[in-house]
Amino acid sequence: MDKEKTNLGTEKIIKLLLTFSIPSIIGMLVNSLYNIVDQIFIGWGVGYLGNAATTIIFPINMVCLAFALMFGDGASAYLSLKLGEKNKKDAEIGVSSTILFASLFSILLTIIIMIFLPNLINLFGCTKAIRPYALKYGIFIAMGLPFMMIGISLNSLIRADGSPKYAMRSMIIGAILNCILDPIFIFVLHQGVEGAAIATLISQIISFVININYLRKFKTIKLSYNIKKISIDHIRKVCSLGISSFITQMAVVAVVTTENNTLSLLGTASKFGSEIPITVLGIVMKISQILNSIIIGLAVGSQPIIGYNYGAGNYRRVKDTFKYVIKISLVISTFAFLLFQIFPTQLISIFGKGNKLYEEFAIRAFRIYLMLTILNGVQIPSSIFFQAIGRSKKSAIISLSRQVLVLIPSMILLGKFLGLDGVLYAGPLADLIAFIIALILLITENKKLSENKLEKKEITKKPTNLKKRIVITIGREYGSGGRYVGQLVAKKLGINCYDNEFIQKLASETGLSEKYIAENEQKTTQLPNYGNISASDDLFIKEVELVNELYKKESCIIVGRCADYILKDKKDVLKVFICASNEEKISRAVKYYGINNKSAEKEITKTNKAREKHYKYYTNREWKNYENYDVVIKIDNFGVEKASELITNMLKDR
Description:
The chain has 24 helices and five strands. By secondary structure, the chain is mainly alpha-helical. It folds into three domains: 1-21 and 270-453, no CATH class; 46-257, no CATH class; 471-653, P-loop containing nucleotide triphosphate hydrolases (Rossmann fold, 3-Layer(aba) Sandwich), CATH 3.40.50.300. Strands 2-3-1-4-5 form a five-stranded parallel beta sheet, with helices on both faces. The two termini are 38 Å apart.
């Protein structure tokens, strides 16, 4: 085991947290500052209607960010996976195709946005008073969208290429430049909201140029820029890897769009009007996001520590790390709660002055909407914790329950009965329900965590009676007897058969527990995604390495694990697929697994769908396309004994 992994298992937790979390927190804060800096200077130089314009344009930015992250995070995940497979050619095609396609797509999307900008701002809740500001601000922001999208996509790839400091540097330079240019354009050149947008545009161009410059010295692969060689199949795969990032950002778009339109509608019937609520709640959400981004950065920094120790079966260390994260997060969220409740007037004044109604609504918004912000100290880390241990569905439930499943319906329903206050109370209601869900899932998971580290078993190389080396890969339907066929062939040939034994060997070489590997090796879910590689992706990379290692070292049989695809270009490999009729699979499941007919049929369907999805996800090929294999055997026609003889005889002929 390498030094880094050893440190993750033995180094002081607080030291590791500082090492991993500080860069993550800085990155999150830089992203948050990009969203909020314009509002501060616009508030002082233009007024709250100018700030309202940034809130209206914000969803357009988020839609473009969603696509940028889908391409960037997807391509970086694809790069890591293909490098793990030692398949640089595919990595080069996939990454190059994505960069070119993302560039063309961003330009096309920008053109569409610029043409339909007047209609789009109506969709996002623009009022008559805000409209001129939104159009002036939006047109320059739209001009910068290709630079923003391509820059962010490249930023993810630069990190995956092993240059996280370079990626962070380009972000920080852009953010600092935006802070410098904003006051120059607004107060010195008197350009108003257009000036703020131009400052953002210039900053995005500079970050874009810095990232583009990196492509000349890309370390892991050689990039190609031939548009004619764009591969749609590779782009489709990249997008599937990045779809979680897209969904997470689009959830924010849905929330902001619902919020703006609801506030616009309800505000007309209140003394505050529509513009004040839209402006204020936009500011409130962005201020809270700054403090939340510290918690997110801390939790993301804990991911490698939690993930490694969970995989290694060191559950006490997993619990201790998570406790540290929760304690620190609660301190941050408690500080935020006190800040929002005690100093709302001072906070809103950072964004310029307004009339008495503006200040009155700001105080109400901070104190009501962020009433239970203290609970974010548990809810946010819990979502990232479940992602770190491979429980992607639980992570998605916690994350999406707050933003989509509760907040949006609550805004609409409570707004209908309580007016503007209903929209404000939707915030703490969503926080409370997301906290309760997180707490229930944490309690359940805590019961499952064992204190005892699982014992690792070593597999020894058997003496073989084969004259030439051969590796046999066996793909099989659940219930077909494929595993047993592999074991019989291995016995006849005097070689190892790696199925459950593969899990044992992987555990012994990586330090991951057998339980963790068994639970995660056929998973493909990634929601939500705060990093580039999910637990299942990381595990697949390790499996690819082990399959290639076994191929080089010994004659053997490898059951499943996409081994036929991983070794597809090797000549001394026999690729076998074992299938059976539904009746035969059910019969075997009832006989050998001790379950009834109905349960057997359900389990067979579920497991084979999971295998098919896993295979498609990592190979971009169909699991049951028999052209992928050298031999396909239907067990009904032969039985497992005869099937094993057939395979053995084929090897004698070869």
